[in-house]
Write a structure and sequence with these properties.
The complex is a heterodimer of chains A (889) and B (93). By secondary structure, chain A is mainly alpha-helical. Chain A has 35 helices and nine strands. Chain A has five domains: 375 residues, Sodium/glucose cotransporter; 130 residues, no CATH class; 80 residues, no CATH class; 109 residues, Helix Hairpins (Orthogonal Bundle); 150 residues, Heat Shock Protein 90 (2-Layer Sandwich). In chain A, the strands form three sheets. A five-stranded mixed β-sheet of chain A has the order 4-6-7-9-8, with helices on one face. Chain A has a two-stranded antiparallel sheet with strand order 1-2. A two-stranded antiparallel ribbon of chain A has the order 3-5. Chain B is an all-alpha fold. In chain B, 60% of the residues lie in helices and 0% in strands. Chain B is built from two helices and no strands. The radius of gyration of chain B is 19 Å and the shape is elongated. The chains are: A mainly alpha (889), B mainly alpha (93). At the A-B interface, helix 5, helix 6, helix 11, helix 12 and helix 14 of A face helix 1 and helix 2 of B.
């Protein structure tokens, strides 16, 4: 038998080893060179604080009493680990980007850095953790007791020494400094070592039992079948509830969030942990049933099955193995207590002490002095207080079976945070009101139906209330809410508390409206895995950089604060330590402070200095608007570029036309110069002859003067045409409107054009005979004359013939002029109505190419039109005259 | 917020990556199904066979996770052309 003193010596040696490991890890972390501290293996092992002494010793006892049900405690977390990709990765990412320091901080940050929620979750954590610590102390003292016959008074002393030692370790390595990342390398290294020790111990006992006590797996199966737990007594509602509860607790336990999210050094470690941690749980539970059945078979009736892990090797005189098992249990208890105490103390200091301190100190965050001491002292006191509470709880509850049930009760308590937590990271509609309502309702029901009754009939709730309900109201009996009896107490409590919790959370969220900061945080949490960030939580403010620096120095220390301010100033292109106070800078600063004192406190402190220039609904809308505007702008740009394309096409067409007109104009100018010069030349030469030659015969002089006169007339005509067109185009023409006979107008035009005399045969129908129109007959006649002259001049037939066809269409009258020449080729039909255009170079007629342009202008003024009519076997023009639709110009 | 334009069809490699992530999201449901299945034969099973069943399911799930860990961390390291893998939500103002 091992002596008690030897045991204490080994224990002390082990603790010294832990101190050394932790110290070495801190040293290594301080030098910045920490390859193994950052390994995924250490991260996975640190997660193993889920397996406490309750699971190390208790699982075997649980299996000995209820068979396979103990497995639910491991299957729940396995399911959660299976969801690592969609769930844990998101949690870890949020933890890193928001600098989360605890579960209370996580929930509080999500719901607009709410102090109320931080306090609520901290209280739940405190109430859930204290009995759990008591449970660890109990298991350590019980395991000590195995090695000492009697000496009950020693047990209490052992528990007290144990609590004190743990407090010392936790204070030394958990509150060494106020880190901006809230990471404790020494602690993580120590619990990783402890994880190895407990796994190794349990595996050693298991292998010893299977291969040395029994003769292999086959024999064990036989033993199971022959044991009292041979039939699997599976109670479906308990099986499902406990699996759910274990999974929920794995997510919500303060110590689990601490190692999984807060202490996470690299998000990729989760990839390894996703399979390695379930494997760890698998190995931890693999030999539980074999140890239980071997214990049941060989230990005397009445032996405590919770201690089979120790007593079976001891009974077989394997002292070394028993010592290993003892160290395994010791490791399980201590690692849990250390991390839980750190997590709870962080919460208490950040969410209870700091807000109170901030409120009580009038001048608030701006006074000088090192705040870090306040935070650290708060944490140290909390750690000592939590362990003391645990010890007192252990003493008062008297240990024993009542305490053993506290594990599940504690799980059910912390699980009340689950709806707010999951709702917060997957649903943007979750609000602070909903989260607080859910947590309060769930916590109240849990306390009434599970926690308070756990103190026994002599505790808070008396036997009468348990049996009859408060004030005799049967529907409120703690174990039979709404009169539904016969349920397992844990199932009963979990079903009602979680249902009403979720319901209150949903209703509260539906009916309330979140603050801007809540909405901002909600968006950032829910979209944590998507790149890019939305709005900033600070509006532009007039806060002084110096005040901010003073405050930051007090929280994170001069070195870190100055480094941040200097880097920020350098980014902004300034020298020194005082950057411009931009919203982005405030955001970064708040993040850094949040890493030390929690999101809510950091926000409150920054708000004190900036005068509460927090983001408003308008700012949020602005961000949404900006995104919308960008979309609209791009749509607009697209439309504009299409429009530009069309315009460019039109411009190209117009340009081609202009070019061709320009060419025509050039041709016309040269032609008109020529036209002008020809008469001018003859006028000049004949007038010179008249001046210089004295002896001219009178008839010769007469002839020369006649030539000069004719040429002058020709010039006048040309200039008249140009003037006429210019007047028409400028809209300055005066129309002399009256009623006239179309027949008369055509006849007059024929005479004036002198068509018949020039050998053009004109064929008229009788259609025009009695059509009367209201128009300017002189102008209309001008158009007709022009068309008839054109036919006379350009018709290239042997016997030129012009048909004039008139038709009455009611509101319009159509007059077609069709000759039997070769007509106008297709490509020229577009151009003939343009100014200065001439089809050929036949300039014999003395035309300047203005006739048809004048015609088109006149018809436009008269409210009609003139068009070339293709397909008539010759040149054909259609004049369409409005009957009475004259427009006065 | 503006919804990002996601490509409608993906190249083979990206397609595989997406399906791998689908499996990763499906795993917890698979595990819950396997672990809760014994509820169906409550009362009629023996502890030994129940233990073998549960550990077999457990082992397979761990194996599945371990096999996926490599590819999925590689997939994560490469930038996904969609830029997003979580589900997006739009907040109504």
């Amino acid at each position: 038998m091992l002596s008690f003193n030897l045991l204490v010596a080994v224990c002390l040696a082990y603790v010294v080893l832990l101190f050394l490991i932790a110290f070495a890890a801190e040293r290594q972390a301080a030098t910045g060179d920490r390859p193994w501290l950052r390994s995924p293996l250490v991260y996975t092992l640190s997660l193993s604080i889920y397996c406490t002494a309750w699971t190390f010793y208790g699982a075997v006892g649980y299996a000995a009493r209820s068979g396979l049900e103990f497995l639910t405690i491991y299957l729940g977390p396995t399911i959660v680990m299976l969801a690592w990709w969609g769930l844990l990765r998101k949690l870890v990412r949020i933890g890193r980007t928001e600098r989360i320091t605890s579960i209370a901080d996580l929930v509080s940050s999500r719901y607009g850095k709410s102090t109320l929620l931080g306090v609520l979750v901290t209280l739940i954590a405190l109430i859930g953790t204290t009995p759990y610590i008591a449970l660890q102390l109990q298991s350590v003292t019980l395991s000590f007791a195995v090695f000492t016959e009697g000496g009950a008074e020693n047990l209490n002393a052992t528990a007290l020494w144990c609590a004190a030692g743990l407090a010392l370790f936790t204070i030394v390595f958990g509150t060494r400094k106020l880190d901006v990342n809230e990471r404790h390398h020494g602690v993580v290294a120590a619990i990783a070592l402890e994880a190895v020790v407990k796994l190794f111990a349990l595996l050693a006992v298991g292998i010893f039992v299977v291969f040395f006590v029994a003769s292999g797996p086959g024999d064990i199966i036989g033993l199971i079948d022959a044991s009292p737990i041979d039939v699997w007594d599976l109670q479906p509602e308990r099986w499902m509830t406990l699996t759910f509860l274990a999974g929920a607790a794995f997510l919500c336990l303060p110590r689990m969030i601490h190692v999984m999210v807060v202490e996470n050094a690299d998000e990729r470690h989760l990839t390894t942990a996703s399979w390695a941690f379930p494997l760890y749980l698998f190995l931890m539970s693999l030999f539980v049933v074999p140890i239980a059945v071997v214990g049941l078979a060989m230990m005397p009736i009445g032996a405590n099955p919770d201690l089979f892990v120790l007593t079976v090797p001891l009974a077989l005189d394997r002292d070394g193995l028993a010592m290993l098992a003892f160290l395994g249990g010791f490791s399980s208890a201590t690692s849990m207590v250390i991390v839980a105490a750190i997590a709870v103390s962080t919460m208490v200091s950040n969410h209870i002490v700091m807000p109170i301190w901030l409120r009580s100190a009038r001048s608030g965050a701006t006074v000088s002095g090192d705040l870090r001491q306040v935070v650290l002292v708060a944490r140290r006191v909390t750690i000592a207080a939590v362990l003391l509470l645990g010890y007192l709880y252990y003493r008062l509850s008297g240990g024993g079976a009542a305490l053993a049930a506290i594990g599940l009760i504690s799980f059910a308590g912390v699980a009340q945070v689950l709806p707010a937590l999951l709702g917060g990271i997957f649903w943007r509609g979750a609000t602070r009101v909903g989260a607080a309502a859910g947590v309060i309702v769930g916590f109240t029901i849990w306390a009434w139906t599970l926690f308070l009754p756990s103190f026994g009939e002599t505790g808070v709730i008396g036997a009468a209330v348990l049996a009859e309900g408060p004030w005799g109201i049967g529907g409120l009996r703690p174990y039979a809410l709404f009169g539904i009896e016969g349920l397992d107490p844990v199932v009963h409590s979990v079903v009602w508390s979680m249902s009403f919790n979720t319901l209150a959370f949903l209703l509260g969220s539906f009916l309330s409206f979140p603050t801007p900061l809540e909405r901002l945080q909600g968006a950032s949490f829910v979209n944590a895995l998507s790149p890019g960030r939305g709005a900033r939580s600070w509006a532009v403010s007039a806060a002084g950089a110096e005040e901010l620096l003073v405050m930051s120095q007090r929280i994170v220390g001069g070195r870190d604060a100055q480094a941040l301010f200097e880097a920020e100033a350098a980014d902004q292109g300034k020298e020194g330590y005082l950057p411009e106070v931009t919203p982005e800078f405030l955001e970064r600063l708040e993040r850094m402070l949040a890493g030390s004192v929690g999101g809510a406190t950091a926000h409150a402190m920054v708000a004190q200095i900036t005068g509460g220039a927090s983001v408003s609904v308008d700012d949020l809308m602005k961000v949404a608007d900006e995104a919308q505007q960008i979309m609209e702008q791009s749509a607009r740009l697209e439309a504009q570029s299409a429009e530009l394309g069309r315009t460019a096409q039109q411009l190209r067409v117009a340009n081609e036309k202009l070019m061709s007109l320009s060419v025509q104009k050039d041709a016309f100018l040269s032609q008109i110069s020529h036209e002008l010069r020809t008469p001018m030349t003859s006028i000049r030469s004949f007038s010179e002859i008249l001046r210089q030659s004295e002896g001219l015969a009178p008839e010769e002089r007469q002839r020369y003067a006649g030539v000069i006169h004719d040429e002058a007339l020709r010039l006048t005509r040309l200039l008249d045409d140009l003037l006429d067109l210019s007047v028409l185009e400028n809209g300055q023409v005066t129309l002399n409107t009256r009623e006239a006979s179309l027949d008369a107008v055509i006849s007059g035009a024929l005479v004036a054009a002198g068509a018949e005399e020039q050998g053009l045969k004109v064929v008229r129908d009788a259609g025009a005979a009695d059509i009367r129109i209201v128009t300017d007959p002189d102008r209309l006649s001008q158009v007709f004359i022009n068309l008839i002259s054109n036919a006379r001049k350009y018709c290239d037939a042997e016997a030129p013939t012009l048909s004039i066809v008139t038709r009455d269409l009611g509101d319009r009258v159509i007059v077609d002029f069709i000759d039997n020449g070769s007509g106008v080729p297709g490509r020229a039909q577009e151009l003939i109505f343009e100014k200065f255009s001439r089809l050929s170079d036949q300039k014999a007629a003395g035309s300047a190419g203005l006739g048809l342009a004048i015609c088109r202008e006149i018809m436009g003024r008269l409210g009609g039109s003139i068009r070339y009519l293709p397909g008539q076997g010759g040149g054909a023009f259609r004049v369409s005259i409005a009957r009475a639709g004259l427009r006065a110009a | 917020m503006a919804r990002e334009v996601r490509p409608l069809f993906l190249a083979r490699q990206s397609y595989r990556r997406r399906r791998l992530m689908d499996i990763a999201r499906l795993m917890p449901f698979l595990g819950a199904f396997g672990f809760l299945l014994p509820v169906l034969w409550a009362g009629s099973a023996r502890t030994s066979s129940g233990m073998i069943y549960l550990f077999a399911v457990w082992g397979l799930l761990i194996l599945g996770l371990a096999l996926m860990a490599g590819p999925i961390s590689r997939a994560e390291a490469e930038p996904d052309e969609s830029g997003r893998d979580g589900h997006e939500e739009t907040e109504e103002p």
